[in-house]
Specification:
Elements (H helix, E strand, L loop, with lengths): L7 E4 L3 H12 L7 E4 L2 H8 L15 E4 L8 H10 L8 E5 L4 H10 L3 E4 L4 H18 L12 E3 L2 E3 L1
Parallel strand pairs: 1-2, 1-3, 3-4, 4-5
Antiparallel strand pairs: 6-7
Helix pairs in contact: 1-5, 2-3
């Protein structure tokens, strides 16, 4: 794995929050590695190389930053798909959401999240949180080797390649 080129998948429907996250990651030299999608179905399309992402380069992202409250398919649905997939289940997923509801926290951990971060409302606190996320998940954490080629399988979200 080349940690200098691995992608970070940002799944966030709010353009302002996505930009804020990109700005925070830019502080740590990671902005060029971020791929942003705005809903859960686009996230699965990216991960399974479907539709607009059929020809995307590279393997699985080194990290998924996942919002919970999104249109089409929410973060819990995306998380369940990732953690239930033989090809994707080793990708670290950090829920990055504004929700502090205990039920959301419980559902995210039940679905297999690796970490849950409630977005701080102050920019300096958000930068600090992103610093720790980057330090651990990008620089310290050792990810599992990727599974060989993914085949097609049917799910509740359609055929996945």
């Amino acid at each position: 794995m080349n940690k200098n080129v691995d992608t970070i998948l940002l799944v966030e429907d709010n353009p302002d929050d996505a930009e804020l996250t990109r700005l925070a990651l830019a502080r740590y030299g990671l902005d060029s590695r971020v791929t942003h999608v705005s809903d859960g179905m686009q996230a699965l399309d990216y991960l399974y190389r479907r539709d607009a992402f059929t020809d995307r380069p590279g393997g699985n992202p080194i990290l998924v930053l996942l919002d919970l409250k999104m249109p089409l398919l929410d973060g819990i649905g995306v998380l369940k798909e990732i953690k239930g997939s033989e090809q994707l289940h080793n990708i670290p997923v950090v829920v990055l959401t504004s929700s502090t509801e205990p039920s959301d926290l419980q559902r995210a951990y039940d679905a297999g999240t690796n970490a849950y971060i409630a977005k701080p409302t102050e920019f300096s606190q958000f930068l600090n949180a992103m610093k720790h996320v980057c330090e651990f998940w990008i620089n310290i954490n050792q990810t599992a080797p990727q599974s060989p080629g993914a085949g097609t399988r049917s799910t509740q979200f359609g055929d996945l390649i």
